[in-house]
Amino acid sequence: MDREEDLQEKEEKEGLTLRLGNDDHVEALLGRAPQGPYEVVVRADDGTPRVLRNAPFLDDGTPMPTRYWLVGPDDVLLVSRLESAGGVRRADAAIDPDELADAHRRYAAERDAAIPDGYTGHRPSGGVGGTRQGVKCLHAHYAWHLAGGDDPVGRWVAEHLGSEAVV
Asked: Domain ranges in the chain?
C-alpha cells in the first residue's frame, strides 16, 4: 500500500476529511506538501482553491487548531497587505470582545465536532487559528468567513478589502 492509500484508509477509519485529489494544486499554493487531511471548500471562478477546511489532526496525529486555511493567492496577498498595515490591531479594536469570544467558541465547537467519538489523545485548542481571545490572524478569520462562517473579524476584513477583494 502506498502513502496515499495508507492516509486514505486512516482518514476513513477515523472519520477525517479526505484530500479529494487536490494535493498537487494545494501543494503549489502552500509551497509544501499538505501535512494533514483537508477539503477544498471555496474556489475561485477559475477553480483555484481559495479556502481549505482542515481535519482536526495532521497526518502524524498532531492537533491542528486551524479549521479554515486561506490559500487563494490573491486572497493571501490582499490580507497580508491589510495585516502589514496594522489590520490585526485595528480589527481587534473594532470588534466587540463578546462577539469575538462567541465566534472563537463556535469555531472551536465546529472543529471539535469533527473529532471522532471516543478520541482520548491531545486535542486542538483555541478558536479561530488556535487563538483563545482577541485577533491573531486575519487570514484565518477571512477564510472562515469565505467558507460561510459567522465571523465578525472575517466580515471586517471583507469590508476593508473593499473593491480589491477577489470574490
From this structure: 3-164
